């Protein structure tokens, strides 16, 4: 499979107005004239950016990752329509048998990408090793962390990220074990102190799950987990739907955390009309642009990554900087060295946008996605 795309290409060295050629799923050649960021935004009619990478996806298209079966295929086809070329299927806190059921289906999806769908590169295990007093929208099936349990689940589907609360008994001590076994650990759904957050980072935790949400907040006499992230983190997720996090707080995080990257925390309601949907064992309602439990608690989002990009640009980020936050930083954090940036030899995972940053085309390994039928 070979092809060429013409437009303003965002490379690691800046914008190039010209042609990108791909062959057999890889970028083979980028030719053209280097132009400044300002000129690109003023003059370009078409932008070619790296495909988006989302490490926190619970659902989409009316389906939820915990359903098992073919749900993940519908989810991956929904998100590809919005430019997400790689994603982590994210589980919910649940009884072990339910997590095992979901993981069995996710394992098959991780092995082979279906045509017309985003690539599922692994699983984000969000819980069950979280604080029962900071569940957010997670069901209350919390239990102690166990390396044996994680390894058994990993045998069903590759686990790329694990969210845990560091203040719970044994959780700080298990972080080095998890890291030694090859797992990335994120801090989240936690009432931990600033000191707990720093201790978790020192033991090998690499990031923070949906920064500011479901964690102890920043206060000048009690900095909390959010304060630990702002003071010390290199990477953290953030949900830029402008509902989960105030724009001012997003700006604070952008200044403080070099590798801050965007996630959707998307649910089955993503890409669907208002109504009732599943989130793990919960029923949630989509209305007025959000997803909530019956008591009003935010329960994931309906955000898509193309909208995340537009939101960042509306907040004042350059297109180049916004692209880093929806593609490159997540790729670097997850160790996905062959995507997240447009360079010769990398996967031809690409999005093509018009001047208004509306999605026009998506390619995964050079495969053109039919956006109307995805």
Could you characterize what this model shows?
The chain has two domains: 2-48 and 356-368, no CATH class; 50-341, Metal-dependent hydrolases (TIM Barrel). It has helices at residues 37-43, 71-80, 96-111, 147-156, 171-180, 194-203, 224-232, 247-256, 305-314, 319-334; strands at residues 2-11, 14-23, 26-35, 46-50, 52-57, 59-60, 63-64, 84-90, 119-126, 159-164, 184-187, 207-208, 235-238, 259-262, 275-279, 282-287, 290-292, 350-354, 359-364, 367-368. The protein is an alpha/beta fold and 374 residues long. The model has no long low-confidence stretch (mean pLDDT 96). The protein contains ten helices and 20 strands. Strands 3-2-1-4-18-19-20 form a seven-stranded mixed beta sheet.
Helix segment tally: 10
The number of distinct structural domains comes to: 2
Average pLDDT confidence is 96
Please give the number of β-strands: 20
> What's the arrangement of strands in the largest beta sheet?
3-2-1-4-18-19-20
The oligomeric status of these chains comes to single chain
Q: Order of SSEs, N→C?
A: EEEHEEEEHEHEHEHEHEHEHEEEEHHEEE
- Helix/strand-derived class? alpha/beta
Which stretches are poorly predicted, pLDDT < 50 over at least 5 residues?
Answer: none
The largest sheet, given as strand count, sense and whether it forms a barrel, is:
7 strands, mixed
Rg value:
20 Å
Key words describing this protein structure:
single chain; 374 residues; alpha/beta; TIM Barrel; 2 domains; 7-stranded mixed beta sheet; 6-stranded parallel beta sheet; 10 helices; 20 strands; 29% helix; 29% strand; globular
